[in-house]
Structures are given as structure tokens and as C-alpha cells.
Design brief:
Layout: E1 5-10, E2 14-19, E3 23-29, E4 32-35, E5 41-44, H1 46-49, E6 59-62, H2 73-88, E7 96-101, H3 107-119, E8 124-129, H4 130-137, E9 148-153, E10 158-164, E11 167-174, H5 178-193, E12 195-196, H6 199-208, E13 220-227, E14 233-239, H7 240-264, H8 267-276, E15 278-281, H9 290-298, E16 302-303, H10 311-321, H11 325-328, H12 336-339
Parallel strand pairs: 1-7, 7-8, 9-15, 15-16
Antiparallel strand pairs: 1-2, 2-3, 4-5, 4-6, 9-10, 10-11, 12-13, 13-14
Length: 341
């Protein structure tokens, strides 16, 4: 008997898990609520995220999966254990896990991620690059010498990769994503409007009226904040143009990561990409106008898969289910025993 087969997309903002024969079974914010004195876990995922800006001093919120990696080993292990326990429930056998990692991370960072997954309850684990996982998730053929470009824009990182024959040909991970947009929105409103807003408000403004390109019509939203002059609460109106201006540098960084990869991609693969288009995935893929902005910057058509947020987790599961795919492409499972050798 063997345990569950789990595809795990570990991101800065969320953790998404897919299980064999069930599809996506978990999609939760990567947030942990801890008792401040003892570090005991109180809540994990959405329940912890809902406490943002509202919890008492006795509780601290941590987001241990920064930039798509592992920033706090102990907290990361606790978070992943909570999620694996939810998925596996009372099953006796430990699961086998294929998880995502940012392209270009160091061997030490890989070991830290694998160690957290294994100590959190997995029996065996292996990591694959996030753009490759997303490519597998959208159905890219693994046996064809054909180039496909994947751009996965998450909360903390943007992964750009060119995949051919089921392997990464060129890849880059840029430290820019949705969290950076939230941060610059907060900074813009503080510096230009004299209003202090929380992270959740900044994220709502980004989602509701923000974008990479201006809309044809003028739109605005009424938000709640705190007046920087007297510290009192207030309602204020903010326009889409202001939010777009605030996030423009972040959008330009995403485009630069894409053009940097295209510049070093072999010409034959670029021809394939030009014919087939760029696939835009991840939690920020549906930011208004981002696809069109990338099209204008590259001259290449951009496509957004219907399940753009979940493709990396589904791709990990596909890699796990396709016999011999991982080993034939140089990916090998480790256990706690072999990891520590």
C-alpha cells in the first residue's frame, strides 16, 4: 500500500494542492496564526488570513513562504503540516509529493524546501521548477521538440520559462508579484493622498480597479483608510488611473523578465513561441490588461488558461502520474533519510 499522490504548488501567497483522481482539493493563503509566547499553531490558511490587521497582541501572523521559497523553516514546516494533515486526514501511509520551486534557486534552498515538506509529513518528495509544472498543467506535450513559454505571476515571484520536450530550456525567476503591487499601492496612497490603508484594502483596490493598462471608461472606488494628519478614519475615492500608475513599475519588471528570457532563447524555440503564444498563469494572471501589456511589449499573443491559478499544482500531479517522466528528466525522490546523507 502507498499513500496519496499530491501535487503541491508552494507560493508566497497561497498553497494549492491536487490529489490523484480528485483534482484540486486545497487552495489556502500561506498564512499561519501563532500564539506569541509559545508559538503554538492557532489557525492556518484562510482563517489565519482573515485575522490580518485584526488580531490581538497575543497572536502573531506569519507568512513563512516568502518569494516562493522557505524563509522561516520552523513556521514553514508547521504550515505545510497543517495542510498535509487536512488532505491526508487519518491515513496511515505517508503521501508522495511533487512540489514547485522557483527556477534558479540554490541547492541549499532546495534542501530547505524538501526538508520542510518531509518533516511536515510527506514520505517522499521531489521538486520541479514552477514554469515546468505550469506547462505540464496546461497540457504541454512532453515528447515533442517544440518550445512553449510559460509566465507564472504569483504573489511573491514571477517565473518565466521556456519548455521543450518536457524540460526547462531557459528560465528566470524575478522577485516581483502581487504582494509588491499591494505594497506600492499602500506607499502611493500614503505619499500622494495622505491616507494610510491596510494590506487587505490595497489588495482589494488592485483587484477591483487596478490594472496594467487603462480601461476605456473612467472608474473609481470608495475605500476606507486612516488620515495621516490626525489619525482619524475616513472614506476616500481613488481612481483606476492612480492604482495603475502605482503598479506600473511592477508590471514593467514582469515584462522585463519575459524579454530577458526571450533574448537568450534559441531562435527555433522563439519561432515556436511566436506561433503558439505565451501562456500567462498564476494568481495575478487576470490582472486587468496584463495580457495585452505583455503582447505590446513582446509582439507575441498571450493566452490565459481557464484554470490559470491551479495549473502548477495540476502539473505537479501530472508529473507524478506519468510513469518514468520524473526520473527520465533528472528529477529524483528523496526521503528524510536520503536527504540527510
Amino acid at each position: 500500500m502507498v499513500g496519496l499522490k499530491i501535487g503541491l504548488d508552494i507560493g508566497t501567497g497561497s498553497v494549492i494542492a491536487a490529489v490523484e483522481n480528485k483534482g484540486v482539493v486545497l487552495s489556502e493563503p500561506a498564512v499561519l496564526a501563532l500564539e506569541r509566547e509559545t508559538d503554538e499553531v492557532l489557525e492556518a490558511g484562510k482563517r489565519a488570513f482573515d485575522m490580518t490587521g485584526r488580531c490581538p497582541d497575543a497572536i502573531k501572523l506569519v507568512r513563512p513562504l516568502l518569494s516562493g521559497g522557505i524563509s522561516e523553516l520552523e513556521s514553514s514546516e508547521k504550515l505545510l503540516r497543517c495542510f498535509l494533515d487536512r488532505i491526508c486526514k487519518n491515513k496511515i501511509f505517508k503521501p508522495t509529493v511533487v512540489a514547485t520551486m522557483p527556477a534558479g534557486i540554490t541547492n541549499l534552498e532546495k534542501r530547505n524546501i524538501l526538508g520542510c515538506i518531509l518533516r511536515a509529513g510527506a514520505g517522499r518528495a521531489v521538486l520541479i521548477e514552477e514554469p515546468l509544472a505550469a506547462a505540464l498543467g496546461i497540457g504541454v506535450m512532453t515528447d515533442k521538440p517544440y518550445g512553449t513559454m510559460i509566465v507564472n505571476v504569483g504573489a511573491g515571484t514571477t517565473g518565466v520559462g521556456v519548455v521543450t520536450m518536457g524540460s526547462i530550456a531557459v528560465a528566470k525567476s524575478a522577485a516581483v508579484g502581487g504582494d509588491d503591487m499591494d505594497r506600492v499601492i499602500k506607499t502611493y496612497l500614503k505619499n500622494n493622498r495622505g491616507v494610510n490603508v491596510g494590506r487587505l484594502t490595497a489588495e482589494e483596490l488592485k483587484t477591483l480597479i487596478g490594472g496594467a493598462k487603462m480601461r476605456d471608461e473612467t472608474i473609481a472606488a470608495v475605500a476606507k483608510g486612516k488620515d495621516m494628519a490626525d489619525g482619524m478614519p475616513l472614506f476616500f475615492e481613488v481612481t483606476a488611473q492612480e492604482i495603475n500608475f502605482a503598479v506600473r513599475d511592477c508590471v514593467d519588471e514582469i515584462c522585463k523578465a519575459i524579454t530577458d528570457v526571450l533574448e537568450v532563447t534559441p531562435p527555433e524555440l522563439v519561432r515556436d513561441i511566436t506561433d503558439d503564444g505565451i501562456f500567462l498563469c498564476g494568481g495575478m494572471a487576470k490582472l486587468y490588461g496584463l495580457d495585452k501589456y505583455i503582447e505590446e511589449a513582446t509582439g507575441i499573443k498571450v493566452k490565459i488558461p481557464g484554470n490559470a491559478t491551479n495549473v502548477a499544482a495540476l502539473g505537479c500531479l501530472r508529473a507524478l502520474n506519468e510513469e518514468n517522466y520524473l526520473s527520465s528528466n533528472g528529477y529524483h525522490f528523496v526521503t528524510l533519510e536520503t536527504l540527510n546523507v
